[in-house]
């Protein structure tokens, strides 16, 4: 994964401080201001964790993940599963106290990015997609729409993405005016950094369009490292002194690109990445590994807690990176726990970000991390 030239941490702090002193964040007021902050999470409909079990006291917004556009008409594909599951999801959350807003997320990491590229390529196909998304959201009672296009492949895709945001927001404004209902929220999950190079040439997100048309963008600040690499790594490090692959760099790049901090909602993982160590005695960050570890390369947080206890694993808090890792025998896991999440949320709050989100509900351990993050944000 290619990244822009490394910015030393001191310079990073200076430019963030300068940016936060400017009035840039007030140039694009949101119709839906964050107010006390966004504490969001994605609910994967394909998992077994029931929506009725969500403790809404820790969240303000819940995403239904995911629907996909049909590859020919670009209208949302409502499978029989979704037609059954969405009403259950909405019904389970509609009367909860405290209340949460629900958003329909479209896309996801396992989808065919070419379909989104083709959909966004013409005004006609964008219109079909937009109209269908609004129709489905209103039919089931969602309060917002979220795009998770992973990832626009080149400068043309990014240009078309800007047009999609613009036309989508205009359609949402018009629909709200005609229906007399509150406008649907419009959000978008994006790469952790505003510019990147992988699977193609250099490209940058349309920061101006994000600032003007979205209620917020959600940088996915995780999956920096994984078992596709032959060395151990912290997949959601807040800082990395040796590279730009870190949350602090990514969030800084978005602010530097011109997106107001209050329109950024920082992603946090409720899962870890695992490896098999080449030498169990050599067990630090960045040491040689042979491939996937427990869980075929991924363990969710409650599994990590159980693994650490069951194997009497050594648990290490990396204070420089602000992340955890544990190891037992040849098994190695990089992840977040209460302390690192607390510090990350406070980092987001100190920069004036709009909030944070988790991937994903059902992965926590008795709401341990969710409650800690919520308390850190509110207090």
From TrEMBL:
GO terms for cellular component: extracellular region. Keywords: Glycoprotein, Glycosidase, Hydrolase, Signal. The keyword Hydrolase applies. GO terms for molecular function: chitin binding; chitinase activity. Residues 1-25 form the signal peptide. InterPro entries: Chitinase_II/V-like_cat, Chitinase_insertion_sf, GH, Glyco_hydro18_cat, Glycosyl_Hydrlase_18. PROSITE patterns: GH18_2. Gene3D superfamilies: 3.10.50.10, Glycosidases. Residues 37-379 form the GH18 domain. One of its GO terms (biological process) is carbohydrate metabolic process. PANTHER family: CHITINASE, CHITINASE 12-RELATED. Belongs to the glycosyl hydrolase 18 family. Chitinase class V subfamily. This is PREDICTED: chitotriosidase-1.
